[in-house]
Structures are given as C-alpha cells and as structure tokens.
Amino acid sequence: MERRQFIQKGATVALAGGLLTNQAIAMPTTKVFIHHVYFWLANPESEADLNQLIAALKKLSEVPNIQQFHIGVPADTRREVIESSYQVSLCLFFADSEEEAIYQIHPLHLKFVEENKHLWKKVVVYDSVDI
Amino acid sequence: MERRQFIQKGATVALAGGLLTNQAIAMPTTKVFIHHVYFWLANPESEADLNQLIAALKKLSEVPNIQQFHIGVPADTRREVIESSYQVSLCLFFADSEEEAIYQIHPLHLKFVEENKHLWKKVVVYDSVDI
Questions:
Q1: A122 or B9: whose pLDDT is higher?
Q2: A residues 75-94 closer than 8 Å to B (CB)
Q3: CATH code for position A82
Q4: Is a pLDDT exceeding 60 seen at residue A15?
C-alpha cells in the first residue's frame, strides 16, 4: 500500500509536468523509516578498505525492500555542529519499521556484516520515523 | 538540470507501472547531498517545546530548493550501535553542495534558527554526498 502510494505520487509528478513547484516534489505524503549508518574505518588511510566497504554496500543494495539507497562520504562542510570524522555513510529508506526489521535479518545483510565488520572500528546508527 | 532528471525519473516510474521491481524505485541515478540534523531538546520532557520545533521545521520546508524533506523522531529500535537519545531529526536532500549552501543562508532558515535555537541544547549534523 505504501509502495502504491509512492508510485501514484510519481504519476502525479509526471503528469503535472512543468506546472509543478519544487514544493510538490519536496514533500512526499508517504511516511518513511530512515536508517542512517555512519562508519568509521579501522584503517581510515586505506583506500583499499574504503573501496571494499563501498563495493560491499553496493551489493547490499540488492535487498529488495529498500526504497531508497544512498552511499555517501562526508561533504566538505565544516562547522562546529558538523560531525565529519566518519568515512562512509549509508542512508536507507524503508516503508516502515517492519520492513526495516526484515532487512536486519535478510541473508544479504547478515553476509555483509560478517564479511566486512573487520573494516570498521565504530558504527553509529540513527533510526528515525517520519512524524 | 538535476531537478529535471528527478522529474523524468518520476515519469518513467509512472509509465512503467506494475512492471517495476522495487529496485527501480530504490536506486535513483541522481546523486544527492544529504543534510541530516539531530536535535536534543533543552527540555526533552516538554511536549510544547517538541511541538514548537516540529511546527517550525514544517515552515522551514518552504525553502524552495529542498528536494526531499523528512521530520522524524527516534524509531523504537534499540541496539548498542543505535543513537536514540535525540528528540527530533531533520533529513534534507539537495541537488548538490551549492544548493545546500544556498539553504544555509536562506532567510527562512536564518529565521528558523533565530526563533527556535533556545529550544535545543545540542545539535549534531551529518552532511554527506553520494559517491
């Protein structure tokens, strides 16, 4: 149902075409569960380790119930409130908490953790649900 | 240009209809800048303060160059790696770092900070750019 709403929203966006304001795109009506993970590498200077983690995260994207998938690195912004000491971020959108729970125990996710956990020394996760 | 690509993606999603796999929705080709802010309230027990912050964040969504806007609260997930002590999160997507820089100095954003900064005791920001 959530997914259908998402597609219908896409249809509205497409049909309205050039008449749309940014606002219409910026405010999806579908509420999501955002699972945002920040990784600190055990060897932050190792390009090989960085590339291995990124490659592994790309494979992880094959878990089928992920709505949006973003692998990131810190932006160039530097202010007192900005945490930029991590090396890699993973931002996943799910329809709801049940879908995220399914992801947690999906074989591809368990395999990812098992094969790559030696690469990081610290992981911080923020799970949030839209109000 | 980024925005047009986003709309075209919407059109493709709409036209393909039921033939789509989740994967097609999950993997946008457009790279984004994710600005994720976590707020710790000065008075975390105050429902009035929470509501004021959320209302102010909704107004903030009127900044026109925001691509996606999510106001969240911590999910029910509790594991050692999960940071769930914040009260409110704000996840914004921008086309790129230049667009996020414009947001930082937008009058609506400056007004938001000025009028509401007394509500929080701590803010942590993670800015990430898609690889």
A1: A122
A2: 75-77, 79, 81-84, 86, 89, 91
A3: 3.30.70.100
A4: no
